[in-house]
Write a structure and sequence with these properties.
Structural class: mainly beta
Helix content: under 10%
Shape: elongated
Largest sheet: 5 strands, antiparallel
Order of helices and strands: EEEEE
């Protein structure tokens, strides 16, 4: 990813949730494009503090192109 920005982190017990914005590169050459996706991530942590489960939700219809870097 070009960037991954978490925001509004909420932790309760063994779970955490946050909204995020990620910019990803797709394709190659002339077909290359950057897309921005916004969504929510839910993490479950085990007793050792390691991520035991992860769920992400986003709306594909809300994906938007971003300018290619120079």
């Amino acid at each position: 990813p070009k960037s991954f920005t978490p925001d509004r982190v909420v932790v309760a017990g063994d779970r955490g949730v946050f909204s995020f914005t990620i910019q990803i590169e797709l394709g190659e050459g002339e077909g290359r494009a950057w897309l921005e996706v916004a969504g929510y991530d839910i993490l479950t942590v085990d007793d050792a503090g390691l991520i035991a489960d992860q769920l992400a939700y986003w709306d594909p219809a809300a994906m938007r192109p971003v300018p290619l870097p120079d």
